[in-house]
Every structure is written in structure tokens, then in C-alpha cells.
Write a structure and sequence with these properties.
By secondary structure, this protein is an all-alpha fold. Helices cover 72% and strands 0% of the residues. It has a single domain, classed as UbiA prenyltransferase (Tetracycline Repressor, domain 2), CATH 1.10.357.140.
Length: 296
């Protein structure tokens, strides 16, 4: 049992929740500047983030298991290698989906005089379907990277709606847009490893469509857009200011460093760019906001 649980956590790369969770918490922290903090909301955010991502990752491994078996880079993953049974992963996926839907109820019930917030409950199924749908996109569109970005964009946007409702949406929209282009950019970098495989097997990606060198330029432009949206966020939010803007200089430096690690003729450091640098960027932005709010 413990071995299966450990392998499930490895399957979904549970530690990589760090990519999206800080952005959800960042949106919540900004929303709580104008709304009362509730432990119930924080618990709901954590549960929804972990469960939605777990469902999406497990579903992705299920839908891609036959493709992964043919790719030397991914043939050692749990399902193609026979380390986990398909039925076990299906059960885990469905339980994660059910847990996500149930967790949205934590946002509904509020103490008077605050009215119930039904939006998370209403939007839960469409959000879940959209997030799961990413796993099928590379079968029909090279824009799959942007679908993934839009799926992670929902983290800060949905968090804002869960705390405040559908009001004052400029801040979460800018933050969500930054997340979308950030994720799309680094997913394009990561997909460069499989450009030849994807092209041979009829799978769609930006590197398979336009080649690795041109894809690196597209990824860099995505991250430039991300940076611009974060600057816009600094001016759109009344709670952000000089400290956040100065800190964005460091974030920009990390983005430049990420792209310096990857070259068209040398993809050996893609994992360092993908996992290490991006983890620092996501956590760093959350820390920046917390420091900004502390010194206001």
C-alpha cells in the first residue's frame, strides 16, 4: 500500500505543485486585503489546487501511456513500465476529481453578514473539464502549450473568485495572463526535447511545427509578455508598489538565465531550466508580494 501511494505521488510529480500553488496563494493574499481572511478559504484553496492538479496529472499519464511507451525519454514512467496498474490510476483520478468538486463547498458557506459564494460550485465542473482536456490537445493542435498555460491561469483567477466573487477582475486577469504566458513559454522549452518524436508520430507541438531554434524565440517572447503583464499588475493593484517592481527585476534576470540554459544545439539543461528556475520564479513572486504588503 505504501509503495503504491509513493508511486502515485511520483506519477503525478506531487512536488511540482509548487509551480501553480504560489500563484493561487498570491491571488488569495491580494484578495484578502479587501476581504476578511477565513481559514476555511485557505483550506479550500489548498485542497482544490492539489486535487485538481493531481487529477489532471494522473489523467495525462493515462491518456499518454501508449505514447510514453514509444518514447525513449518517457518509457520508464510508471504506467508504461508496469509499476502501477491502469485501474489504480483511474481510481486515483476519479477520487481526485470527486475531492475537488466536494472541496468547492468550502467557499459556499459563509458566516453572516457575508452571503454564500456559489461561483466556485457553479464553475467547478467546467474548470475541471478544461484542465483535464489539456491531455488530449497535442493530438490536434500545436497550441497545446497555451491550453496548458490557460489551465494553470485558472489557479489565480479561480482563487480570486472563490474569495471575492466575480468582482474587480482586473488584478486576477493580469496575474492569470502572466501565468498563462509563463507556463506556455516553459512548456515550449520542455517540448523541444521531443520535437523529432512528436513530428514522427503525428503529435502537435510548437517545436514539431517550426523547429527548435524558432521555438526558443517563441518561448522567449512568451516570457517577455509575462513580464509585461506582471509590470501591469504592479500598477493595477493598489496593494503593490516599489518593492514589487524592484523585485520584478530579479524575476526578469531569472527568465533571462532560464533561456541562457537552453540552446538549439544543446538541450541537456532543459530540466534545470524547467524544474529549478521556474520553481524559484513562482515562489519568488509570492515572497515579493508578501514583502511588499509587509512594508506598506
Amino acid at each position: 500500500m505504501l509503495t503504491a501511494a509513493r508511486r502515485l505521488l511520483e506519477l503525478i510529480r506531487f512536488s511540482h505543485t509548487i509551480f501553480a500553488l504560489p500563484f493561487a496563494l498570491l491571488a488569495a493574499v491580494l484578495a484578502w486585503q479587501d476581504e476578511p481572511f477565513r481559514w476555511q478559504d485557505l483550506l479550500g484553496i489548498l485542497l482544490c489546487m492539489v486535487l485538481a492538479r493531481s487529477a489532471a496529472m494522473a489523467f495525462n499519464r493515462l491518456t499518454d501511456r501508449h505514447i510514453d511507451a514509444q518514447n525513449p525519454r518517457t518509457a520508464g514512467r510508471h504506467l508504461p513500465a508496469g509499476l502501477l496498474r491502469t485501474g489504480t490510476v483511474w481510481a486515483f483520478t476519479l477520487l481526485s476529481c470527486a475531492g475537488f468538486l466536494a472541496s468547492t463547498l468550502l467557499f459556499y458557506f459563509r458566516e453572516p453578514p457575508h452571503p454564500p459564494n456559489p461561483w466556485p460550485l457553479y464553475l467547478a465542473v467546467p474548470v475541471l473539464l478544461f484542465v483535464l482536456g489539456y491531455s488530449l490537445t497535442k493530438r490536434f493542435t500545436a497550441l497545446a502549450h497555451f491550453w496548458l498555460g490557460a489551465a494553470l491561469m485558472l489557479a489565480p483567477v479561480a482563487t480570486w473568485i472563490a474569495v471575492k466573487g466575480l468582482v474587480e477582475m482586473t488584478v486576477p486577469t493580469l496575474l492569470g495572463g502572466a501565468v498563462m504566458f509563463w507556463v506556455a513559454g516553459f512548456d515550449i522549452l520542455y517540448a523541444c526535447q521531443d520535437a523529432a518524436f512528436d513530428r514522427t508520430h503525428g503529435l502537435h507541438s510548437v517545436p514539431a511545427r517550426i523547429g527548435v531554434a524558432a521555438s526558443l524565440r517563441v518561448a522567449a517572447r512568451c516570457h517577455a509578455v509575462m513580464f509585461g503583464l506582471l509590470v501591469g499588475l504592479a500598477f493595477a493593484s493598489p496593494h503593490l508598489g516599489t518593492v514589487f517592481l524592484i523585485g520584478l527585476g530579479l524575476i526578469g534576470g531569472l527568465l533571462v538565465y532560464e533561456h541562457a540554459l537552453v540552446r538549439a544545439d544543446d538541450l541537456s539543461r532543459v530540466n534545470r531550466a524547467f524544474f529549478h528556475v521556474n520553481g524559484v520564479i513562482s515562489v519568488g513572486l509570492l515572497v515579493l508580494v508578501l514583502v511588499q504588503l509587509a512594508v506598506r
